[in-house]
Amino acid sequence: MLTEYQRMIRFHLHSYGEFDHVRRIGPAVWPYFDLLFIHAGHVKLRICRRKELELHSGESILIYPHTHFEGYSLADLSRASVQHFAIDDHHDSPNHPPFDGLVKLRNGFQAYPAESGWRIEADVARAMKLATVEPTPLVHEMRCALLTLILGGLSRRSNQQAIGPMTGSTSDVSFDALVGWAAQNLSRGITVHHLAQRAGLSFSHFRARFEQHYGRTAGAFLRDLRLREASRLLRETRTPIKQIAVHTGYGEAATLHHAFRKDHGITPAQYRTQFAPRG
Fold this sequence. Notes:
By secondary structure, this protein is α+β, with helices and mostly antiparallel strands.
C-alpha cells in the first residue's frame, strides 16, 4: 500500500537529451514540475519570457508548473536530464517535506549551483533508470524516495541561489488554472473553442492572449499535452492503445496513430515496443 505522501506524487516523462545550436530546449509550458539537471556543457534558459540565466555542468533548476521556458546550448553540445512530476494540490495534509513547500508553487523556478561532495548526478541517474522499470508499487516507492532525496538535498544547500518564484499577473493566473483544467480533462476532447468559452473570451481574443502569454498557440499546446500523456501511458502502462486514444481526447485509435506518427515518426505500437519496460 502506498503511503500518504507517495499518493501525492505522479511521475511523468523522465528522459535525457542532447542540445546544440539547432536542437533546442522547448519552448514549453506544462502543468507539472520540471527538474532539469545539466550533466555536461553549458545552456542558456529563458524563463517566463523575461528572465534569462545560464546553467553549467552540475547545476540544476526546478521549473514550477505553468511556467514558460525555452533554451539552447552555448557549448557545441550539452547533455541534460529532465524529471517531470506533479503534486496533488488538493491533498488534505501535505506536511511531507520537501513536497509540502512545493504544493502551491506556480509560474516560477528555483536554480541551484553545482556543489562538490554531494553526488546529485548519481541520484538523478538512479531515478532515470527506475523510470524505465515496470511501475510496480515498490518501484513507485523507490522513485518517491529518490525524488525526496534529490529535492531535499537541493533545498539544504547552504549556498543555494534561489531565483524565484516569479508570479504572473492576475490574468496569467486565470490562464494557468485553465490549462491545468485542460490537462485533467483531456478525455473530454477539449478544443481551443472550449478553452475560449471557459475563459469567457471570444475565440480570436483568446487565441491572441494565449499565444502572447505562453509563446505558442493554444492548439499546439493541446496537441503536445495529448501526445505527452499518450507517450507516458504507452511507456508506463499496458493500457490498450484504443483506451489511450479515448483518455487523451483523440477518440479513435486511428486518430492517435496518425497524430503520433506525424510527431514521433513511429506508431504508438512501435513506441511502446521501443520504450516500454520489459517483463
